Amino acid sequence: MEYKIDDKELNPAAFLAFVNRVWPGEYDEEKTGAEGFYEKNGCKKGLRSYVLERKN
């Protein structure tokens, strides 16, 4: 996956396929909008961002 700022071509399915390779989990494609997505999937709020902790 290539990182692009404000990538209008990136869709939730492609994003979640990538995320599952890094942080496997049960993600909700309907909740891929920033805050709802991260909070729904267990991420803690940090300063102006979210803390993504890797589980071993």
Produce the secondary structure layout.
Elements: H1 12-22, H2 34-40, E1 44-45, E2 50-51
Antiparallel strand pairs: 1-2
How would you describe what is shown here?
The chain has 56 residues and is mainly alpha-helical. Helices cover 32% and strands 7% of the residues. It has two helices and two strands, in the order ααββ. It has a two-stranded antiparallel sheet.
Number of strands: 2
Average pLDDT score: 77
Sketch the major β-sheet: 2 strands, antiparallel
Alpha-carbon Rg, integer: 11 Å
Total helices: the number is 2
Structural class: mainly alpha
Strand percent estimate = 5-15%
Q: Which H/E pattern describes the elements?
A: HHEE
Shape: globular
Low-confidence stretches: none
Overall helicity: 25-40%
Strand order of the largest sheet: 1-2
Distance N terminus to C terminus? Answer: 23 Å
Task: Briefly characterize the structure.
With 56 residues, the chain is mainly alpha-helical.
Key features of this structure:
56 residues; 2 helices; mainly alpha
